[in-house]
Design brief:
The chain has about 200 residues and is of the alpha+beta class. The protein has two domains: about 35-125, Alpha-Beta Plaits; about 125-204, no CATH class. The chain is built from seven helices and six strands; from the N terminus they run H-E-H-E-E-H-E-E-E-H-H-H-H. It has helices at about 5-20, 50-55, 90, 135-145, 155-160, 165-170, 190-200, and strands at about 40, 60-65, 75-80, 100, 115-125, 135. The strands form two sheets. The chain has a four-stranded antiparallel β-sheet. It has a two-stranded antiparallel sheet with strand order 1-4. Strand 5 (about 115-125) and strand 6 (about 135) form a beta hairpin. The chain is elongated, with a radius of gyration of 26 Å. The chain starts with 5 loop residues before the first helix and ends with a helix. The chain binds iron/sulfur cluster (2 copies). The site of one iron/sulfur cluster has 13 residues, from helix 3.
Length: about 200
Amino acid sequence: MRKPKLRELREALLALVRGPYTTKYPFEPHVPPEGFRGKPQYDSEGCIGCKACAEVCPALAIKVADETGGAKPIRRLTVHYDKCIFCGQCELNCTTQEGIKLTREFELAGFDRSKFREPVELDLVICQVCGCVVGARKHLLWVARRLGPKAYANPTLIVTAEGSISLAEGATPVKQESLSRNDMMRVVCPDCRRTIVLREIWGE
Ligand code: SF4
Ligand code: SF4
């Protein structure tokens, strides 16, 4: 029989005094250590709906759905944590650093995969000309706050940030062919703004 090494002997003696390293889970609750990467969870306060987390997710576990058909257009981001590999990239690359966190929750097994969802919903801002999605309202407000006075270079941002979005939303939609300088202070997507600016400069 091989003689035990001194280190192993020391570990065995220490274990007699300190007790075992293993825990009694599942007979006793287990609290994972700080930094443990468990179930990802959105924070509806911290999330601005920018989609960066969905773009960096290597497992394509975050789905983005823009619902523009109803009275209130919304963006829904959903983490499918049955597909999540708990890499933490979403948390690491979150624009606000407060929108999504990996919790210490690890008991995630179940029989119904349709329940393995963690959603967050945000209001969308829609272009008043072509009806496409400009972005999540909170995202536009966040960008405007970060830009400060420079946000005045983009009327969509400033109309949103000044709280006059409700007036803008109530404005009568206009067709692309009749866009003119008067429509500068509308909430419009980058394509329609480009059309307005080109007509202002070249008149077509
Ligand atoms: S704020 Fe963070 S959590 Fe929310 S959509 Fe952007 S990256 Fe994702
Ligand atoms: S932890 Fe990784 S795999 Fe899971 S949702 Fe975040 S980025 Fe995707």
